[in-house]
Amino acid sequence: MTDREIVQLFLERDESAIAETKGMYGRLMRSVAYSIVQNVQDAEECENEACLKAWNSIPPNKPQRLCAYLCKIARRTALDRYDYNNAAKRSHSVPLDELADCIAAAGCAEDRLSEGTLTQLLNDFLESSDRDTRVIFMRRFWFGDSIADIAKQLHVGQSMVKSRLSRTLKRLREYLKKEGYTL
Predict the structure, then answer these.
(1) Omega of the bond leading into 60 within 30 degrees of 0 (cis)
(2) Which of 46, 64, 120, 122 gives the lowest tally of CB atoms within 10 Å of its CB?
């Protein structure tokens, strides 16, 4: 079944849309969630919640790229679950903490760029980077993969991944400053 057909099932409020979604994208949504929550049961619950959120948001939304839409929902759900699970204990650091040093504005809300503008800046920055840098950046900060997992996937050493991330974050800080983003 194609994405367009699954979206049509959602639009028609056909409950088989959930089963088709889970069959086609369930494993991917669990993987995205697991990389953040690091717990199989929580990842499965995030997958189920993401399907429910998709059910409740289609319509009125009509996503052109269902895979990206579902992964975004699963990721946000997992981040919420992570925050809930770790509200009392702040010992484990999610990779977004590393990125927050680059994109968190120190000033007041008026000094910050809109989320859409920041998204466009990040997209432009990544487009200007080489493929390996983009893969490392996205695996670390979007999927939440560990440095060891990224190194294994790319068949390189962990020190190479760490140094590439460090250099990329430094370049990102410089790029954002140049574009007027207050750090």
Answers:
(1) yes
(2) 64
**pLDDT per residue as tens digits for the range 22-67:** 999 999 999 989 888 888 999 999 999 999 999 999 988 899 899 9
Dihedral sign for Cα atoms in the order 47, 21, 146, 80: negative
> pLDDT digit string (tens) for 99-112?
665 655 444 444 44
Q: Which domain holds residue 161?
A: 96-178
Domain final residue, candidates 52, 85, 118: 85
What is the rounded end-to-end Cα distance, in angstroms, of the chain?
45
Burial, 56: exposed, middle or buried (Cβ in 10 Å; 0-12, 13-18, 19+)? exposed
Count of structural domains, the chain: 2
